[in-house]
Amino acid sequence: MAAKKQKDAEPETGGDGGGPSVAAHPRAARAVARAKGWGGLLGFLLGGYMALPTNTVVVAGVRALAAGLVGYVAVWAGAVFLWRRLVMLEIRGREQQLMSAANARMPRELPPAAVEHSGAGAA
Length: 123
What we know:
By secondary structure, this protein is mostly helical. The protein is 67% helix and 0% strand.
């Protein structure tokens, strides 16, 4: 019983550890959802067209549904793959903008010049 309470008290950690998420990015989430819809629709239409020579509507419909499902999953995976990279590039670009703005505001001071010491054995 005590072990269960300890498990409940521990915060759950995600796989990314709080890093950037495609689902949390507004443009990425919309783009992935849009891509999934188009992938499923195009897969369904292409699968249905390719299954027309089977001469039965039921078999053509089942094949079209299967092709739509495959298109949906394939395009979803590709869109998530692409948007992960785009989100990371966007974050890096924003970091560079912030760093350059912070560097521009800092006063330009030269480090103090090194004082040259004359050695005792120097001739």
